[in-house]
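I am still learning, so can you show me any protein sequence you like together with the matching structure tokens, please?
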Amino acid sequence: MKQNYSELPNGYLETIQKGIAGVRRFRSGITRGTGSRQENLERLRDEIRTADDIMIGAGAGLSTAAGFTYSGERFDKYFFDFAERFGIRDMYSGGFYLFPDNETRWAWWARHIYFNRYVEAPKPVYRDLYELVKDKDYFVITTNVDHQFQNAGFDKKRLFYTQGDYGLFQSVNPQIQKTYDNEEWVMQAMEAQGFVQNEDGVFDVPADRKISMRIPTGLIPKCPDDGSDMIMNLRSDDSFVEDEGWHRASAAYSDFLKKHEGLRVLFLEIGIGSNTPVIIKYPFWQMTNDNKNAVYACLNYNEAYCPKQIEKRSIVIEGDSGEVIRQLL
């Protein structure tokens, strides 16, 4: 049954509204900021030290910096058979591929989930970020779905995953507004395909590279409440389930922002691209503009910029976010 969460603040709706307002306000152009890279590193280090709180907004660029790349070596190693048979060239596009049957589709998703959710990030970027802010009053809003903030030690009560979680399923029945943990299923589906655990307990491709692109029919996930089909809990349309945990995180985000209105807030944006700027980037611009004590910082590989209106209170650093975070430590 659908639940009524109207008594809780809706931080997600609030941030979208701020983002829309930001689009309308910042029409005088954008800038790459001022100062040298070293000067901006020193400024950001000082802001992290002196800020009353740090509002972190993270996108796919942060996970890429941590080594969760969707093409290249990782894809070639774990999805070589799908590439050969179906012509798929990266994990992202494979998520939209129309596979011939459910056994094949769920074999793909088991791998996709496992290698982007249940393994350690190849690089310690998330752990470095945690070391940087762990003693501050922080909160994280992210469009990432790989759970790496919690894996790195961030307090789950200070996290808002707006777009879902690779570790959760939902029913196709719209009346069931619940999510279901998928870890046990993923491990079974990986083993069923022929992946073997190495000395660290991590599933890997066997030496003979003999793995299956199908799982047994009996392993196709079904909703435990009504037996209906399952899908990923990822926001792609209005069928996305915003369960109780999602709504409580949304409310915590709203409460955090209200608690620190007018204070010395650092809005630290990392790896946000142009796909969903209205969720984090534009709201951060808007809130920095509205709070004269706030500072906006943008770390991005090749999309580091800020509006001219807040240039004097912005820190823009272009380059590998993982390397920037390491230097800040």
In short: The two ends are 47 Å apart (CA to CA). Residues 73-120+183-220 form one domain.
